[in-house]
Structures are given as structure tokens and as C-alpha cells.
Amino acid sequence: MPVTSVEKDLDALTMTVVADFPVPVHRLWDAYADPRQIEKFWGPPGWPATFTRHDLAVGGRSEYVMTGPQGERSGGYWEFLAVEPGRSFEVRDGFTTPDGAPDAELPSMRMVYDFEPTDTGSRLTTRTYFPSLGELEQLLSMGMEEGLTAAMGQVDAVVADLASFAADLPAAAQLLGDTQVRVSRVIRGPVQTVWDAHHEPALLRRWMLGPDGWSMPVCEVATSVGDSFRNEWERDGGGGRFGFTGELLESAPPRREVTTERMIGTEGPAAVNELTLTPVDGGTLLTLVVTYPDTETRDAVLATGMVDGMETSYARLEAEVLTPA
């Protein structure tokens, strides 16, 4: 158990949990920055979490649901108030209703996570600030202390697992629910450069091509919320033309954007793509959460080999755009 102390100060309305880990600070930080990793320990044993959004930046937000052994669901959110990469972050932590909205009937709290090196690895100090004594007592009666310490007891196994989250792994997909899929990959380059490669037509035409033998004759980028984008591909020499179009719904350069996407010439509801870029050890963690109209559409798209095509493009991005000549 990595937790070394738990202190409650009823006068200051705080609870402080200290935990020590035998890994460098950057490894512990990445476990909290990467949604694939944090969801392996954030829920207490028997209540695994699924993060449908994890945007570790000032003004960013995380959204997650913990699922109990009998299918019970408990949702929560973080609003990031301050972030000092590799050293600390501060969030407003609260509960959500079944539809994902903040639950006004339950208290929210402010939590500060401080990461520091030690002689044997790293230390995480988590300090929770409660709005009132009554809300402190309410949350403790709900098992907050036990849940937090139990969750931290699962961190050791995650930070020791270097193979599952190595920077040289190919793109991989994870189903998040009935209609969502998350595609993740570490791109070996800085966040701004990866963002630019997704938003400059001349760069997009060099790497976002899928398998060899294709070109992108049409590349129209949406630059402001409400703008439309349009990308079209065709085989070298002509033929096989297809493309996608959509609207930019949200944009927070250089870390996050949300767009709709529909294949040109098709009808029906569009998919929604949420792209998040997060700095991690080894480069930039690219996370793409796609929400489809229904399960059948999601499964049909995945069956086309979408993720393999994305991996081919990401490998080309690293080799031909991000690697200095």
C-alpha cells in the first residue's frame, strides 16, 4: 500500500493523503495524465472507471463513470483550475447525474495534487478542501477516505506496467460504451507540432493518407468554430475517390477540438470526434474519442480496418513530418 499518511483537519476543512511510489515523477504524472492509465486505478477495487473525457489543462475537464459489481454506476467530473505540468494540478471535483450533468444535490470539493521526487522515487500529496464541515462529514460518511486510499493502492501496478503504455506502441482502439470508441497513440513530437500537423493543409497532405498509394487532392481545414472542413482522397493515378466533411464544434488550440464527421454522399446522423493532445514522457498522447449514432455504425466502421489505417498515417506523420531531415 503506497499510502503513508492520512490527516483530517476539521478546522481547516481539509484531508491530506500522502503516498510514495518507487518510480520517477514523470512516470507517476503520466499515470494521471493518460486516460488509459488513470481509469485502471481511479475507481476503488470492484468499481473500475471509464473516462470519456480527460483534458488535463487549465480550463479542461474530465468526465468518468465508475461501474460497480452489480452494474451500479456512479459518475463524476473534474474541472481543471490550475496545472503545472509534471508538478501539480488543481481540480474542482464533483458528482454527476445519470445524464452526465453536475449533481447539485451532492457537494463538490477542491483537490490539489502535488508531485515531487524522493530518494526512492516520487511522492504524491493529495489535499482536499471541503466547502463546509457538514459537507466534509457527509463525504466522509459516503466512504471518500476509504475509496481514495483504496484507489491509490492500485497505482503501483499501473506505474510498474511500462509495456502497455510504451511510446512505440501502435494506435489501439478501446470501446468505451455502446456507441463510443477511443483511439490512442503516443506521437513522438511536441504538442504544438502535432497540432500544427493536424491543421496545416500542406502537412496534412503529407501524412493523413492511410495505406500507401493514395493522395489527398482536397484538404479544406476548419479554422473557427462553426466552420466546415472537407477532406477527399483518391488512388494515385485516379479512381476510388471518397471523403469526409463536418463542422468544427469546439476548439482549444493546441490541445483539444471537437468536430462532426460524415462521409460525403451519405445521409443520417454524423459521428462526433473529440481530439485531445496531452504532453507525456516520450511525446504527445493523441486521444481520439469517436461517438457514433449507434452500435451498429460503430462496429461497421471499425470492421473496415480504420485503426490500422490510422496507424499507417501516424507512422508516416512521425517519419515524414516530425523527424528532422
Question: Quick recap of the structure?
Answer:
Belongs to the AHA1 family. By secondary structure, the chain is an alpha+beta fold.
Task: Please describe what this structure looks like.
This protein is an alpha+beta fold and 325 residues long. It folds into 2 domains: 3-162, Alpha-D-Glucose-1,6-Bisphosphate, Chain A, domain 4, CATH 3.30.530.20; 172-322, START domain (Alpha-D-Glucose-1,6-Bisphosphate, Chain A, domain 4, 2-Layer Sandwich). It has helices at 25-33, 35-38, 133-141, 144-152, 155-160, 191-199, 201-207, 295-302, 306-322; strands at residues 3-9, 14-21, 49-54, 61-67, 73-84, 88-96, 109-118, 121-129, 172-175, 180-187, 214-220, 228-235, 242-252, 256-263, 271-280, 283-291. The strands form 2 sheets. An 8-stranded antiparallel beta sheet has the order 1-2-8-7-6-5-4-3. An 8-stranded antiparallel beta sheet has the order 9-10-16-15-14-13-12-11, sandwiched between helices. The longest helix has 17 residues, at 306-322. It is globular and about 75 Å long. The model has no long low-confidence stretch (mean pLDDT 93). Belongs to the AHA1 family. Residues 23-159, 190-320 form the Activator of Hsp90 ATPase homologue 1/2-like C-terminal domain. InterPro entries: ASHA1/2-like_C (IPR013538), START-like_dom_sf (IPR023393).
CA distance, first residue to last residue = 48 Å
Helix percent reads 10-25%
- From N to C, what is the helix and strand string? EEHHEEEEEEHHHEEHHEEEEEEHH
Strand content: 35-45%
CATH topology description of the largest domain: Alpha-D-Glucose-1,6-Bisphosphate, Chain A, domain 4
CATH superfamily placement of the largest domain? START domain
Which secondary-structure class do the elements indicate? Answer: alpha+beta
The CATH class of the largest domain is: Alpha Beta
Mean pLDDT: 93
Task: Supply the number of helical segments.
Answer: 9
Family: Belongs to the AHA1 family.
InterPro entries: ASHA1/2-like_C (IPR013538), START-like_dom_sf (IPR023393)
Pfam families: AHSA1
Domain Activator of Hsp90 ATPase homologue 1/2-like C-terminal: 23-159, 190-320
